[in-house]
Here is the input.
Amino acid sequence: MKLTRKSFRSSVAGFCCTWTVLMFAQTASAQLLSFSKQELIDYTAQNPFERLPDGRPKVPDALIERARDISSEEVWAVLQAKGFNNQYADGFQVLHPGKMMVGRAFTVQFMPLREDVDNAAQAKAKQAVGKRLFNQTAIDMLQPGDVLVVDLFGKKVGGTIVGDNLFFYVNQATHGGGLIVDGSVRDLNGISEIDMPAYFRSVDPTPIGNVMLTGINIPIRIGNVTVMPGDLVVGDREGIYFVPPQFVQEVLDKADETHIHDEWTKKKFAEGKYKSAEIYGSPSDPKLQQEYQEYLKKRLDEIHKQRSSK
Amino acid sequence: MKLTRKSFRSSVAGFCCTWTVLMFAQTASAQLLSFSKQELIDYTAQNPFERLPDGRPKVPDALIERARDISSEEVWAVLQAKGFNNQYADGFQVLHPGKMMVGRAFTVQFMPLREDVDNAAQAKAKQAVGKRLFNQTAIDMLQPGDVLVVDLFGKKVGGTIVGDNLFFYVNQATHGGGLIVDGSVRDLNGISEIDMPAYFRSVDPTPIGNVMLTGINIPIRIGNVTVMPGDLVVGDREGIYFVPPQFVQEVLDKADETHIHDEWTKKKFAEGKYKSAEIYGSPSDPKLQQEYQEYLKKRLDEIHKQRSSK
Amino acid sequence: MKLTRKSFRSSVAGFCCTWTVLMFAQTASAQLLSFSKQELIDYTAQNPFERLPDGRPKVPDALIERARDISSEEVWAVLQAKGFNNQYADGFQVLHPGKMMVGRAFTVQFMPLREDVDNAAQAKAKQAVGKRLFNQTAIDMLQPGDVLVVDLFGKKVGGTIVGDNLFFYVNQATHGGGLIVDGSVRDLNGISEIDMPAYFRSVDPTPIGNVMLTGINIPIRIGNVTVMPGDLVVGDREGIYFVPPQFVQEVLDKADETHIHDEWTKKKFAEGKYKSAEIYGSPSDPKLQQEYQEYLKKRLDEIHKQRSSK
Amino acid sequence: MKLTRKSFRSSVAGFCCTWTVLMFAQTASAQLLSFSKQELIDYTAQNPFERLPDGRPKVPDALIERARDISSEEVWAVLQAKGFNNQYADGFQVLHPGKMMVGRAFTVQFMPLREDVDNAAQAKAKQAVGKRLFNQTAIDMLQPGDVLVVDLFGKKVGGTIVGDNLFFYVNQATHGGGLIVDGSVRDLNGISEIDMPAYFRSVDPTPIGNVMLTGINIPIRIGNVTVMPGDLVVGDREGIYFVPPQFVQEVLDKADETHIHDEWTKKKFAEGKYKSAEIYGSPSDPKLQQEYQEYLKKRLDEIHKQRSSK
Amino acid sequence: MKLTRKSFRSSVAGFCCTWTVLMFAQTASAQLLSFSKQELIDYTAQNPFERLPDGRPKVPDALIERARDISSEEVWAVLQAKGFNNQYADGFQVLHPGKMMVGRAFTVQFMPLREDVDNAAQAKAKQAVGKRLFNQTAIDMLQPGDVLVVDLFGKKVGGTIVGDNLFFYVNQATHGGGLIVDGSVRDLNGISEIDMPAYFRSVDPTPIGNVMLTGINIPIRIGNVTVMPGDLVVGDREGIYFVPPQFVQEVLDKADETHIHDEWTKKKFAEGKYKSAEIYGSPSDPKLQQEYQEYLKKRLDEIHKQRSSK
Amino acid sequence: MKLTRKSFRSSVAGFCCTWTVLMFAQTASAQLLSFSKQELIDYTAQNPFERLPDGRPKVPDALIERARDISSEEVWAVLQAKGFNNQYADGFQVLHPGKMMVGRAFTVQFMPLREDVDNAAQAKAKQAVGKRLFNQTAIDMLQPGDVLVVDLFGKKVGGTIVGDNLFFYVNQATHGGGLIVDGSVRDLNGISEIDMPAYFRSVDPTPIGNVMLTGINIPIRIGNVTVMPGDLVVGDREGIYFVPPQFVQEVLDKADETHIHDEWTKKKFAEGKYKSAEIYGSPSDPKLQQEYQEYLKKRLDEIHKQRSSK
Here is the structure.
């Protein structure tokens, strides 16, 4: 556990890609619940970005980085205006509360083991991929920038998607992307030392068991959210937002304005001359309103310059 | 609500069948999570019985009737011996506690509404079936002998699969089969007057909403059970067993023996001459053991005669 | 407990009225949280009916009787259309599940005992009414047609608003109106024998204690509802609706239509010729639509005649 | 399950007694937690009645019968006056809510299975009694008038003290005494048909397992009560009181008065001339007070006569 | 969020005072539940200190500072001796666990929105204060040394009293006093960076909504506590004590003794020569007892000197 | 609370031992539930180590130190292979999450107070030990290396085994061993400053009360574990394992291998050349398998050398 993660990031990525695409095509037909690349494309047709080889929308790396500065509230503001009220999940144990999680959703679904069904699935898998499907099948398909999102239906005992070894691997493969599991993890002591964000319902010493893998990169449910593969995942101290790709740009642009608004609001509060209602939500006095608009414009310009100079 | 159910049972059945098969083929391709007739057959390959036109195993009516006399414990005994430990769900409100529920599982799945996904699904549905998918789409496909099994992910507000009108319809269409919903129902007063078994998590006055139908007759999860379409559903005061078709005959035969065993055990207890451990689990005294074996044989013969004379 | 309730109903009522009005004026000024008759009138200004002497809206007896036939769903339909989404409370133990509760809300609030505050309140009460305030102060102000609605903040031990003696009294004083307590009751065996509807969170053998009475006929909170004195209370197997007086007439008229709609819907279902979606929510076929409209008109006429002939 | 219980009651009793005493002495030394007859006598030294052969206080049959008419509230009144505030347990599923449970506590304790400890215990048991200890060891020691009180630490799966066969046996052996288990039962359908009171936390189809029997007739904890063998058990719709033998007579005598008080109170309420506070808790008017005292005396006399004439 | 709080503290205070008093008088008459300055004085008549302009007891700043060193246990000891057993609330998320919260209670109450009532209230508010009442109305009345105590009845979604902007404002206006909300907050990431103590039930991204402000500086209930405006609030890692002003001095003096007692006890334990029972609760050996008394006297003298020299 | 713990460690130990042995013999006979030294030896007969004077198995100090490096998962692997599936408890608040707890279980049991029983017990105690039994009786028997394990049946109010003074004492007496209580503690602020591991269910300001001490060093239940005195306690961030002494050596040896396995696994992952399934659980490629075996051997040698050189 003394190893550091940064040195070996780059080498993994290229290797992963080809392997994963092949795997995806093959495993899709061997899963109990299949969701083909074409279906994925159809159901995420509003995606304005490129796609990953497996068909998932590819929110650009630059936007993912910008998302590291936003908060749940800022996502909420845009999504509720669009009528998307079921994109937020909370109630998790948060591994590193001060650390934001951002990335592209890579979804995995498990269901309670049922041997007749699992045998049929594994027979199909043997035929398609030459080996049985299990949690590492999915983990080995992860890409840099992914967040592993797992439906283990809240299972504690035997619902441990990873222990510290595989957590270490996920961290590497995703370049620190992150993990969300509606289920549990093992070896919290070991996991705590690895600097990747993670959200889980509970912790248990048992290994994963009494379940069967039923889908990779299919639509899954986490709390009250229907998660689609490729959603932008944004996790803070409170919970997790799953942002449909078509709203990512607007969410981020709006967040810039909100940051400036908060900056200005606190600055005015700090002057000690105003009641909160004179300044917040928006200033009532036209002169203050004008002051704010000028501040907003100036700061937006600065931010845009700063960004383009990178 | 003063109407009686029995008089109009027969007329519905024939009508339903053809319509439903067509619907199934068409809706399957329009669901977010599709599960084709062939997949259903593949994953329930151990089914020893005929199949319904939609591909589901058809546990024979005669066996369904026999299942009306068994208990959870009797199912448990066979299934655990087979290594099937995830077939039981409980924690429901039971509408008519004294009334057994038996039938073939007809599964439906909902997920939290997400407009981008739902619009894509509804567009596909319009193209395939000429109209949008919603709870009545599934309800209108029900067959006599079916139990409607619905995954509404425990939702209370807006998770009400039916009110008393549709509950009435389900009762008619299934010939009193039953309803299980990991979600809620509306209009408990009205529903209570209808003599169909039902299991639900809660009750709410709101109609179903903020969800989308994502699958009909696909594998779903109810509590800790992976339910397959066509499973034999057995519900008593305690909870619900989902019996894979390949085990139905054995479960029922074993239950016959258990009934006789219990009959004899209580008879001996009633004599007041024995400690419980002398008689139960099985008699230790060889003479009592013989007495029991003879009793068992005699009663089994009687039962078989009675059954064949029907 | 062998006594019957009906014989002595009439005598109580007249007596109560004068006494109560005096009590109300006097206790109002002695409560920790006062709410004067004028305030009550101001905050329920939309009440279209007469008022009780204590200022509460008086939903007419005839409408209360009609409300005995409606369901939560029917109330929901009207109130949500008005934007009143916080009028429903559930999660109670229901004493007599098959028995509807209807009546006018008489509210009482308790808070955790705090001697310095209670002493001040009791001193004021002594001065105003000559005695201290406690649960019977409120109970003795109940009128025929009232439902006693009590905020005991979910308290179990010591949160028992009544035992069987006072429950008997409430039944008499309200003419079988009913009881709702966000708290507990004592002596469930005794209470079960009395034929008055009641909703409570729990049951405990301790008498009420460690609390102080802080308000009579003030606005209180029950679950997610702000209850106003004089609201029409409608309780069924599921939960309780608090209907603001201004909506009572519309709720009842709409319920008439819904009853007829359900009657017709089930009749058509019973014919066994239709899919549910052809009939319910509303018939798609214009001919069926017309049939329904005629049926609705005919039955409404019948109902109105029947009502006016009473 | 068609057998009736009453015909064979008498025969069992005599048989049980001798056998049980021997068993008790022998098993006591073989239990993980032993509690000798002498210890039982020492710790229940205030018992004013005879003792059963196993050392438990024997509350007389006549008093047990009288206890069938009392309520939790009446027990509470006496016990809290004595400073015994930890004698009440609730939160159980009640099998037959309208049926009182009364009898002498026969306690059994289980703990989570631990093979090294259980092997040592079973070796001791083999030596002492010639066979291993399990749930039927305790059940076979039950006496007429006993209530079986079992600590299974709230266990659901595998915490099922009995199914319908052994429940039938317990009913016979105790002459309808009853069962309390801080754990679960099996076969609720079957059990529901047997007319013995029972209180349990949950129901499960699994048989008892993964536990070890650690004590028979030792002090155990049920909820917030330390239950001593021989306590008078009184169960109503609400919960269960465990009455130390030394308080039984006083509880019953006080209950007589309370019954009369309630009778009179309701009679006065039924007259419709009084506010509740004029009559209850006790009448304020000296003339009413006198009326009540006379009524009390008269009715007590009647009761005593009625009792002595039996 | 880069702004520091200390530089602008002083300027806000003076400004607030006058404005707030006017507001208080005006809003009191416009609240659903009013509690006039005179009522506040009457119900806190035992207050030994001056009062704030709004009528609240003003526990002196010096005592508030001393309270920063006490613990829940020390408050408990005095209050239970007075018979005040309902002054403690816990079960909150604590924002900065190592940081004590002390200050004067400023109470706010919300209830579920009900438009008929809210419209009446807002009309009254418009007339009285010229604008509608909402959460910022209360926040803008806060004084240095206040702790904002809010009853939002445990509401999560829409129960967010503040986000990071208003939290920043509250910190400034109260000079770091603190926040308690039986409800939620927004923007935990932002709030975590601000060094003010806060206690809340949950966190949610939605803004406050579906509620109405019903009282400012009225008696409210937080958990099992009736909180009076002006109570001394003491919050540690465990929970919150609300100390009636009349007990503040005694609590603090007693805490001095307890600190010295704990200091001495641990010193003796550290010597390694004593069993715990020889030293704690109080030393049994008269010589140790004397040693302790001398230590107590000496240390008290030191503390008093130190305090008076400030 | 400014005192440091290390300086006075040694002096306490010797003193404790003699005193404790005497106490143990005497208190055993005065406890409600007694468990003699001989019984303790019989039920832990598989203990391969020496015993403490009170009869408990004495896992050697060196092994305890080694246990400081293991995790729940490593204990799980050995115990489940032995069929010991009930040795793990979780769901506690963990005082110092990053700090491992290891030591020998010293068990204490409380039950709800019942004065008749407690008086009998105290009379026996007075006779045997000259004073009454209470929490400090047990605390004063603690030895260096012990972990105090207390069954307070989840009690919060009045279930506080220690406050900061006694916590300080326990830390000293056990040399930082630790505390587990299925109950609560007082004075969390004070306790947080003391560097001893602790696991508790809740925190409350009340002192321990309304309970009676019923056993010291008897078998007790913590969650789903039967804890035997002398078990090796291993607590990490997740929960607590109670390891029967006979498995300690194997657990530790296996943990050495697991540590090396994890080290190697992460090293290989860090190389970025492998899919997780190629390396973990065990390498599929024979060459990698060999590499691992050699690494394992080398590292084991190093560890053994390092250990023997200490």
